[in-house]
Design a protein that fits this description.
alpha/beta, seven-stranded mixed beta sheet, 15 helices, 15 strands
Length: 403
């Protein structure tokens, strides 16, 4: 068997749904060729091969590279002042209605150059990479006009070309109404749907279309218009759903066959059932739950009961989740939402891949898939959810190459 690289003397959590905990293979070996896994299994069963390079991992654990399937990584400025306001009693909704929140980030993002946005995003990306991330989703939504939204998406594409991670982009034009359109929100909705999205799509900048469906953001009818446009352009959709109230977002996501419904703290049993029937992934965002000091967790038992796949992500953003550590998100998902470590790790691997429409490419370690790996200084996979702040990543491979 021809191979560019042999990885051996390791234990592997394949995260396949094989029946074994974590899909684990003790004393394993992996053969990689042209950026893909061509064989994986017990070292004793290693087939005859010609490998250009051998990496011996001294008994370390290997998992799929982690996938952060919901981030707002590109933005200008920060909102540490609003963090202080919330600690002094102001609510997220009060800050947003007073012109802070997303609009504050919009102002800073519009003022920043592409190079400045790229450099600042890299500082946050380093935290994700240092915690095993090899694929990251990046949303627009802090530009809120044509030039700034396209600028954000161009920066996201540049990160994917230059920064040692795979990137999927999401157009989030319906994130907030910018101040210049407050007196005529319908004009902004028209602009976001009929002008900015087609322009971004024509430039090849959009992998999926997202929206924020809440009373302080956009309505079911407005989001439905956006999703119809996305469907006409052949783009998949996803939704910020039911974060602050049960506005029927989970059911709306299901109605359009969305890749995912994200947040969903207030989703009803009927909404969860609709997600299950439509195959919509639930993306849990424990960082935002923590930072907003929420008290209503996502309906985890209902998600389990109906068989909805649960992904976990950082929601890295300047206002409600300044979290740049994927392993911290795993820990928070276990502690706050009572996920098991195996559920949490599945949420950052195979279920996160589904949430990005990439389940055939990444998310598990098996022949034919991309050789995106994370190598850990741990003795069992549960440690990925156990340590909070301890550096445990030994190496990352993207497409079979150390990165």
């Amino acid at each position: 068997m021809k191979a560019d690289r042999l990885i051996t003397d390791c234990h592997v959590a394949t995260m396949t749904d094989s029946g074994a905990a974590y899909g684990a293979i003790e004393d394993a070996a992996i053969l990689i060729h042209d950026g893909r896994i061509v064989w994986i299994g017990p070292r004793a069963d290693l087939p005859a091969h010609e490998a250009v390079r051998t990496d011996r991992l001294d008994g370390r654990w290997v998992t799929p590279g982690l996938i952060d399937c919901h981030t707002h990584l590109v933005f200008g400025g920060d909102r540490s002042g609003e963090f202080e306001q919330r600690l002094n009693g102001a609510t997220y909704e009060e800050i947003a209605r007073a012109g802070g929140g997303i609009v504050s980030s919009m102002t800073a993002t519009r003022a920043a150059s592409e190079d400045a946005l790229y450099v600042s995003a890299l500082t946050r990306l380093q935290g994700l990479k240092a915690t095993g991330v090899t694929t990251v989703e990046i949303k627009s939504g802090y530009g809120l006009d044509r030039d700034a939204e396209l600028k954000m998406l161009r920066v996201a594409r540049r990160i994917g070309r230059e920064a040692g991670v795979r990137v999927r982009t999401s157009y989030l034009g319906l994130h907030a109404v910018p101040p210049e359109h407050r007196a005529d929100r319908s004009a902004y909705v028209d602009l976001a749907i009929d002008d900015i999205l087609p322009a971004a799509h024509a430039e090849g900048l959009v992998d999926a279309v997202d929206a924020y469906c809440e009373p302080i953001a956009f309505s079911d009818a407005e989001v439905s218009r956006l999703f119809e446009k996305a469907r006409a352009l052949g783009l998949p959709v996803k939704l910020h759903a039911d974060q602050l109230s049960d506005g029927g977002g989970a059911a709306l996501a299901a109605r359009y066959g969305a890749l995912s419904a994200d947040h969903i703290e207030h989703s009803s049993e009927a909404g969860v059932r609709a997600m299950a029937e439509a195959g919509v992934v639930a993306v849990l965002l424990p960082g935002a739950y923590l930072m907003l000091r929420e008290t209503t967790p996502p309906p985890i038992e209902a998600l389990r009961r109906h068989g909805v796949a649960m992904a976990v992500a950082t929601d890295c953003n300047p206002g409600t989740s300044p979290v740049a550590s994927m392993t911290a998100a795993l820990t928070l998902a276990c502690v706050q939402f009572r996920l098991t470590p195996e559920e949490a790790l599945a949420g950052a691997t195979r279920h996160a891949a589904r949430a990005l429409g990439l389940a055939d490419e990444i998310g598990t370690l098996e022949p034919g898939k991309a050789a995106d790996l994370a190598v850990w200084d741990i003795t069992r996979p549960a440690e990925l959810c156990y340590w909070l702040g301890k550096p445990i990543l030994h190496a990352r491979y993207v497409g079979g190459d150390p990165s």
